[in-house]
Amino acid sequence: MATEPLSQKEIEDRLRELPGWSLDDNRIARTYRLGTHFAAAALVVHVAGIQDELDHHSDLTLGYHTVALTVNTHSAGGAVTDLDFELARRVEDIAPGHGAS
After folding, report:
1. Residues in a beta bridge with 90
2. How many Å apart are CA 23 and CA 30, to the nearest integer?
3. Rounded to a whole number, what is the distance in angstroms from the first to the last CA of the chain?
4. How far is CA 5 from the centre of its chain?
5. What one-character-per-residue DSSP string does 71-84 give?
6. Would 20 disulfide with which of 27, 34, 56, 100, CB 3.0-4.6 Å?
7. Is the dihedral of CA 44, 50, 52, 54 positive or negative?
8. Which residues contact 74 (CB under 8 A, 6 or more apart)?
9. Within 10 A of 29 (CB to CB), how many other CB atoms are there?
10. pLDDT one-digit tens code per residue, 11-66
């Protein structure tokens, strides 16, 4: 998967395909709100599995009924790349219907 930095327009176009995700300080980010703390903790475990499969890791924060992710590609100088969007899409696939904040 390409790790070349994406242009601002490419990032904006791809974010339109991922409702709830946004650009925050040169990272793409989303917070999921879940019904229970246990559900949030379970989501963290699933996201960690995806990150290991992709060998690409986000900052992942477990809160009270929430899971927050922020990601960029360190090997591309901290820029947003295709790899970040692949991670975001894979997380969306396992967390459908959860509201963003």
Report:
1. none
2. 9
3. 29
4. 16
5. E-BGGGTTB--HHH
6. 100
7. negative
8. none
9. 19
10. 999 999 999 999 999 999 999 999 999 999 999 999 999 999 999 999 999 999 99
Report the SS3 class of residue 69.
strand
Tell me how far the alpha carbon of residue 33 is from its chain's centroid.
14
User: How distant is the alpha carbon of residue 92 from its chain centre?
Assistant: 8
Quote the Cα angle for 66-38-41, to 5°.
60
Structure tokens at 26: 């040169």
Q: Are 35 and 72 in contact, with CB atoms under 8 Å apart?
A: no
In this structure, what token pair is assigned to residue 3? 């790790």
Q: Please state whether 24 falls in left (phi above 0), alpha (psi between -120 and 50) or beta.
A: beta
**Chain position carrying tokens 């997380």:** 91
Q: How far are the Cα atoms of 12, 25, 53, 55, 67 from residue 50, in angstroms, in the given order? A: 24, 23, 5, 8, 15
